Structures
1.
Amino acid sequence: MADVAMKVNGEEVRAEVPDNTLLVDFLRETLGLTGTHVGCETSQCGACVVHMGGKAVKSCSVLAAAAEGAEVRTVEGLADGDALHPMQAAFNEYHGLQCGFCTPGMIMAGIDMVRRYKEDGRELDEAAIRHELEGNICRCTGYHNIVRAIDAAAKAM
Amino acid sequence: MYELTYHRAGSLAEALELLAGAEDGALLAGGQTLVPTMKARLAAPSDLVDISAISELAGIREAGDAVEIGAMTTHGEVAGSALVRDRIPGLAALAGLIGDAAVRHRGTIGGSLANNDPAACYPAAVLALGATVVTDRREIPAEAFFQGMFTTDLDEGEIITSVRFPVPVRSAYAKFPQPASRYPMAGVFVAETTRGPRVAVTGAGEDGVFRAENLEAALAAGWSAAAVSAVEVSAEGLASDIHGQADYRAALVSAMAGKAVAEAS
């Protein structure tokens, strides 16, 4: 068993879990944070994307023990009270979802790409958003409203 | 995933010790290949030694006329490095094309090279640039390092610490990705080096990365996309699988070589 401690959404958490526990299962099963989804489990679909150390990672491909000491943020940790994060608000405003299963991963990936492009001083245009979404799969929308939502959120962030 | 014992090494010495003491130990770098492989139960190490946080294996620095990249440097860090972008733009561009953004935040150059997947991108750059793979005990030239599919010159328990890339006059990488996996069906790295033009191909060979000597000869006569396009790439030794036949891959190698040379012109 591994004694794992990390900071999730600003709170210190600690639990003893089997060494082979994945970060996504630690979040969902141990902490009850089921906003992060499990889709393909082969690190292709992006439904499980969370931020670790401020960067987007696929939590189905990271061991919980490897996240020891890390700062992790999930979709539950984005809103400020009742005020949604600009990326969440934009997905709502532009209806960037249908079934919603991929949405938590899309939102976490969206925030990450806006951050990286801002840091680099690069323009996150429509083509760039579509390219950056290559690791996040949506089988409902055809992506149009997801791209619009990220584009709008990028301007608001 | 089968049961295992996880260890985090704080130093190279500790990693070597943990690995030597394990029944069937494996090194864990970014885990972007190993963790999915363990989940599929295609690998079942008794112990995982996590080396991703070892500071001796981190960082990108200038080393004479070379750029040295610590083994645990992520693809995202290589792609975003001002030094790599300036000195070896082809290498920075290659790193930015691996997997997707989330994978690039975890996957490392050392992990990729140690795994030597026949469709990994990095081996093409390491071989074309004539890089040196530095380990805890020796330095291995690229030509000796890659020994066929998933096979390298690394000994049992040997750990890559960094990779040293001589700075080329110019370089570029072009890949034709399999649309779903993003792995190259043919990836070609071209470099004009102080030792002449060098071309390495990944993703297309039956036995992993290889140098395309006939393309190198064509570039030696004149650095142009037309020069490489005039070369007929043989399908011999190229892979045939559900994604494409050997002759199709030969055509892709030719097209990607032309594209890379044009980019580096």
2.
Amino acid sequence: MGIYLLRRLYQALLVFFIVSGIVFVILHISGDPLALLMPQDAPPSDIEEMRRSLGLDKPLIVQYGLFLKNAAQGNLGVSYHHGQPALKLVLERLPASLELVVTTILISLILAVPIGVLAASKRGTAIDRASLLGSLIGISAPPFWIGIAFILIFSVELQWLPSSGRGTWAHLVLPATSLALYRLALFIRLIRAGMLDVMTMDFIRTARSKGVSEQKVIYKHALKNTLIPFVTIAGMQMGSLLAGAIVTEKVFAWPGMGRLFLDAIGVMDFPVIIAWTLVTATIFLTVNLAVDILYVWLDPRIRHEK
Amino acid sequence: MNDTSANKTFSPAVAEEPYAPPTAHYLGFEYIPAERQLLHSFFSSKLVQGALLILLLLAVCAVFADGIAPVNPLEQTLRSRLRPPIWEERSLSPYYLGTDSLGRDVLSNIIYGLRISLLVGFVSVGISLVIGLTLGLTAGYKRGFWESVIMRAVDVQLSLPLIMIALCFMVIFGQGLGKMILVLAITGWAEYARTVRGTVLSIREKENVEAARALGFGPWTIMVKYLLINAITPVLILSAVQVPRVIILEATLSFLGLGVPVTTPSIGMAIARGYQVLFSGSWWASIFPGLALMLLVACINIVADWLRDALEPRSREQV
């Protein structure tokens, strides 16, 4: 168990290292930020001066070594565009993104578990079919388009909710629900399928034949065993949501790190692009590691293994 | 009674009834022999038939887009900017679903856009299938050094969000249809490699494979005839899930302006253009392309569910 976790930790670190290397190297050979940074008519001597001051004149491997050394001290470089430390810029935007992602996950989990259980326990009925159809639509619609449709209905037509910005709870409703719809649909399908699978197992039949009430069979015996593997997928979704929220942040002008990243792409602001990638990868890897630990802890069969 | 049973034993040709597979009911599922499950479930589900029919229609539209689209999707007419769909006032004749802010026909953009969606979806999944199948087969059959190299790469890739990998690659390589197909193919190969390796590992020690090896068949024959055959079902199921995923990813990248170039009509870009005129009340420019994309993806998802349920009835839903 301890060895297993150590191996996972080592693997996460390895991934982090590889990601940083790949992003750094390829970004730096793919384009020259100075072309965008300097005015068109800048004299060549000024450009060289700027290149030196940013450290872009050194060989790539030296640049990468410097980058790693600085990164270890929490310094990912200064944004070419904003003139501030890139990591600070990204971390400043992190709370807004986390707010959106956590709300989204909560909405999808709170709704998906009861709907999935209900659909599975009433298999084949109108409720089940409605939930299947609804979740089919949910997994088939691109989240950014759902966001646009929501803006049209609730902001432009009904004028109930604001369509952009952040601040009050009302601002959070549309981005979070539009982002949640896909996960909600996915989770409903997973819980329903998991429940149906568990319900055919022997221990359920044993519980029933012992005279345990149907309610208790469903919620205590079946749901508990369905949720264990579900935790893994829900956790991974949470990590990937942080990256997936970019589009929703763009649609709703949400001031999160995704928008910072998109803006940075437009002006080839390498330090910000790298900082975003590394922060997102770190959070994703951490969440996955936490989910692994939780999974081991939840499932006694793994917990007691040597 | 004795006579009839004797008859049956000695002259099977006189059997009264043709052979019918036994039907049994277990927990509400009717038992159907595996080889007939695919067709059986196809003919028993109107939903699947409908989805396949719509898919076929959309595919025909995409292939013959030049003949079907009412106007050139890239043609900009200033006179017909932001025209609503044909059933509303102010509409203009050939623009059935209205026009966008540059006077481009929404319907034609959808038809050409679906062509791009289907092309990107199927070609890039095809490429990742070939890469993943080859590497997974190699890893599972050869074992040793190459297996650990390949599987470490798979671990690295699967431990990062798909959209993040795609975004970073598109930033690095820049816009372009070919580049996009390639990038999406790169983001998809790892799951194939993992699936195929898993299948190969589970059957490479089976008796028939051992026997083939003992009979002196070469590695190629064993890989193709014994291992590849068994990997077809899981790979087919995975592909059916990957295609809609890639199609949505393509639309997302194009919506962000990081996908296909502006001169290529794509659904994502059409939605992005519609988004710009959202607040002026021109809803059709963003809603219709999205609906079309949703229809396409939903139909593929229905087919994917059917394939999985029919081919692997006991499998847990894979995502």
